[in-house]
Amino acid sequence: xxxxxxxxxxxxxxxxxxLHEALLPPGPGHLLGTDQLxxxxxxxxxxxxxxxxxxxxxxxLLAVVLGAAVGLIAGTRAGIFDAVLMRTVDALLxxxxxFVLLLVLAVWDRVPLPAxxxxxxxxxxYGTSRLVRAETVRLRGEDFVRAAEALxxxxxxxxxxxxxPNVAAPILVAGTLGVGDVILLEAGLTYLGLGIRPPTxxxxxxxxxxxxxxxxxxxxxxxxxxxxxxxxxxxxxxxxALREALDPRSI
Length: 251
What we know:
Elements: H1 5-8, H2 41-76, H3 80-93, H4 97-106, H5 113-122, H6 126-139, H7 143-150, H8 155-166, H9 168-191, H10 203-209, H11 219-246
């Protein structure tokens, strides 16, 4: 729907007759109805879903790459370096992510989309780093790693050629589940007026705009909210399926 919808649907910013087409209920002409400005709700939901998925996938990917890099470095370097790096991650985990996002976005007048993606990524890699570090430490004593060391392989080669492929499964699962968290965060921040700003369509923004007409036109908030729920549910189901498929104990 997000990929092919905009090819057949009208523009999400196109307005009809404000007097006769505003707040129309779902029907043949507008399958999900219209909003206060007579814009087609289905078109706006599809455009908002595209933006939500771009933000979720991009920020989760960046967070996974950063977390995996930190976890690999910490896991392959024992001693004081590993201890300092992990204690730093523990300190960052102690700071609520939502608090940091609210603090930064509240003092930023209008956040560009790349900056929002980067901010969500920079506050979401801590858990992945701990997961990768734990798996790396566990695998560091395996026979295949010791054999590579005996053959003269350097630390970087062992990390990239032997350890990283073996920790790829938990990284993939963590990244997939992280997409759902980012989608909820973005929708919540936009609902608070700190995320995507109008006129760009966003699911959280549509729920925010519909507050004043929720009683008279409940479809303007129910449908965007339902899409958020279904999207996060779908992403979590994919993450659970990947976890079961990549679990060595299930083979």
